[in-house]
Specification:
Helix content: 55-70%
Order of helices and strands: HEEEHHHHHHHHHHHH
CATH superfamily of the largest domain: Cyclin-like
Radius of gyration: 32 Å
CATH class of the largest domain: Mainly Alpha
Number of helices: 13
CATH architecture of the largest domain: Orthogonal Bundle
Structural class: mainly alpha
Number of domains: 3
Strand content: under 5%
Shape: extended
Number of strands: 3
CATH topology of the largest domain: Cyclin A, domain 1
Largest sheet: 3 strands, antiparallel
C-alpha cells in the first residue's frame, strides 16, 4: 500500500515538473531563448529579440462583431440581462415574443402561428408552476407598478422584492392580502434607502386602505427584524423643493430650520412630512421666493392647517425670529 502511494506521489511530481518545463519553454524562443510576446492584433506569438513567429492563428475569444457606440453594442450583444429579484423567476426563464414573425421580420404561416401559440401557453404554465410562484409574480408586479407611480429608483424596487421574498419564505402571508404586504414592503424599502414616501402617498397608489398598510408594515418589520430608522424630515426636503421649483438657497434654509428644530426638540411626536412641508414654506418666505401654502399642501399631500401650525413652531424655535 505504501509503495503504491509512493509511486503515485512520484508520478504526480513528474507530471507537475513536465508541465512547468512546458510552460517555461512556451515563454522562451526556441531559436535564441528570447522573450516571447503576444501580438493580439495579428493573433501571433513573436520573439521580441529575433522576430521569430513562435505561434500563429491564436484563438480570439472576443465577439466576432464590432460596435462603435453603446447603443450598437447593446443591439448586437447576445448576452442576457443580469439576474434580478424584481422578477419571480429572477429573469432566467425564456420569453417568447407575442408577434408572429420570424428573425427576418416575415409573418409566420398558419401552422407555425398555431405552434407558437401553443408554446407560449406552455411556457407561461411552466414559468408559474405552483401557487408560490403565482403569488410572487402578482406581488412583484404590484411592487413594480407602485414604485413607478411613486418615482422610486431601481435599488428600492430590488430591496422591496427581497423583503417580500423573505416574508413569503417565512410564511407571513396567511391572513393578509398580497397587495397589503407588497405595499408595506415598498414603504419599508423606501425608508431604508433614504427616499421615504408618506403613508398618504403610498395609499394613493395602493389598492388597499391606509390603516391596513400601516398595520401590515408594523407586522412585517417586527417579524423580519428589519432595521428601519425613523423618517428624517430633511429627507423629504429635496423632493418638495424640486416639485415647487425652489432654489438651492431655499432648500438649504429649510434644512437649517429643521436642524435647529431637532436641536430644540420641536420635532418630537410630530409628522416628519408636516415638518418638512412647513420648513420648505418658511424657507421660501425667508428667501423671498413665491409659493403658497396651497401649493406646498398639494406637493406634500398634507393639510394647510398642519403646515400653518408647524410653520409657527419652526419660526419660534429659530433664534432671532418671531412668528
Amino acid at each position: 500500500m505504501s509503495e503504491r502511494m509512493h509511486l503515485r506521489g512520484s508520478r504526480s511530481r513528474n507530471e507537475t515538473e513536465e508541465e512547468s518545463e512546458r510552460s517555461s519553454e512556451s515563454l522562451s524562443c526556441p531559436e535564441c531563448d528570447g522573450h516571447v510576446v503576444n501580438d493580439e492584433e495579428h493573433g501571433e506569438s513573436v520573439c521580441s529579440a529575433c522576430g521569430l513567429v513562435v505561434e500563429a492563428d491564436s484563438v480570439d475569444r472576443g465577439p466576432e462583431w464590432r460596435a462603435f457606440d453603446s447603443r450598437e453594442k447593446d443591439e448586437k450583444s447576445r448576452v442576457g440581462a443580469p439576474t434580478t429579484n424584481t422578477m419571480h423567476d429572477k429573469g432566467l426563464s425564456t420569453n417568447i415574443d407575442w408577434r408572429d414573425k420570424d428573425a427576418y421580420g416575415r409573418s409566420l404561416g398558419a401552422r407555425q402561428r398555431q405552434k407558437m401559440q401553443r408554446l407560449r401557453k406552455w411556457n407561461e404554465r411552466f414559468r408559474t408552476r405552483d401557487s408560490k410562484e403565482r403569488n410572487l409574480k402578482q406581488a412583484l408586479g404590484e411592487i413594480d407598478r407602485m414604485s413607478s407611480a411613486l418615482g422610486l429608483p431601481d435599488n428600492v424596487r430590488e430591496t422591496a422584492s427581497v423583503i417580500y421574498r423573505r416574508a413569503l419564505d417565512e410564511d407571513l402571508l396567511p391572513g393578509r392580502s398580497i397587495e397589503g404586504v407588497s405595499t408595506s414592503c415598498v414603504y419599508a424599502a423606501a425608508r431604508m434607502a433614504g427616499v421615504p414616501r408618506s403613508l398618504d402617498e403610498i395609499a394613493d397608489v395602493s389598492r388597499v386602505e391606509k390603516a391596513e398598510i400601516a398595520r401590515t408594515y408594523r407586522y412585517v418589520v417586527r417579524e423580519l427584524k428589519l432595521e428601519v430608522k425613523p423618517a428624517d424630515p430633511e429627507q423629504y426636503v429635496p423632493r418638495f423643493a424640486s416639485d415647487l421649483d425652489l432654489s438651492e438657497e431655499s432648500e438649504m434654509r429649510a434644512k437649517s430650520l429643521l436642524k435647529n428644530a431637532k436641536e430644540k426638540g420641536v420635532h418630537s411626536g410630530k409628522s416628519p412630512v408636516g415638518l418638512a412641508a412647513a420648513a420648505v414654506y418658511a424657507a421660501a418666505l425667508l428667501t423671498n421666493e413665491k409659493t403658497t401654502q396651497a401649493a406646498v399642501s398639494e406637493v406634500a399631500d398634507i393639510s394647510e392647517v398642519t403646515i400653518r401650525n408647524r410653520y409657527h413652531e419652526l419660526l419660534e424655535a429659530e433664534d432671532g425670529l418671531v412668528a
